[in-house]
Write a structure and sequence with these properties.
The protein has one helix at about 55-65, and strands spanning about 5, 15-20, 20-25, 30-35, 40-50, 75, 80-90, 95-100, 100-110. The chain is mainly beta. The two termini are about 15 Å apart.
Length: about 110
């Protein structure tokens, strides 16, 4: 059973939708495209500003439980209440210390289809 990412980001939520396409360029310069999958794939960028070190540590613990980008988990988009199966888009977890016990994080999720 996958975990659930329950933290709610600031409402600067960025969503990207796209296809996974393979483009082959021939010697003549002509190109041929082929979809690797027919389903549209979404990615999400979540921003968390002015959060505490405790919240950072909790998110980092969740990140480690997922082994970075290896394991998928459930995330519910707070703007649409839609549930997605996602994974972290990177094996890196970076946060910024803005002030004493005030941190900022930007996370990217990749939808699993």
């Amino acid at each position: 059973m996958p975990g659930k990412f329950h933290w709610v980001p600031d409402y600067t939520l960025e969503e990207n939708r796209g296809y996974n396409t393979d483009i082959h360029t021939f010697e003549s310069g002509k190109e041929q495209g082929r979809l690797k999958q027919s389903q549209v794939k979404s990615s999400f960028t979540l921003v968390f500003n002015n959060i505490s070190k405790t919240q950072v540590d909790d998110m980092l613990k969740f990140f480690r439980l997922q082994h970075g980008a290896e394991l998928s988990f459930t995330w519910i988009d707070p703007t649409t209440n839609t549930s997605y199966t996602v994974r972290f888009a990177s094996d890196d977890f970076t946060y910024e210390r803005a002030a004493n016990d005030v941190y900022n994080i930007k996370l990217q999720f990749q939808q699993i289809v």
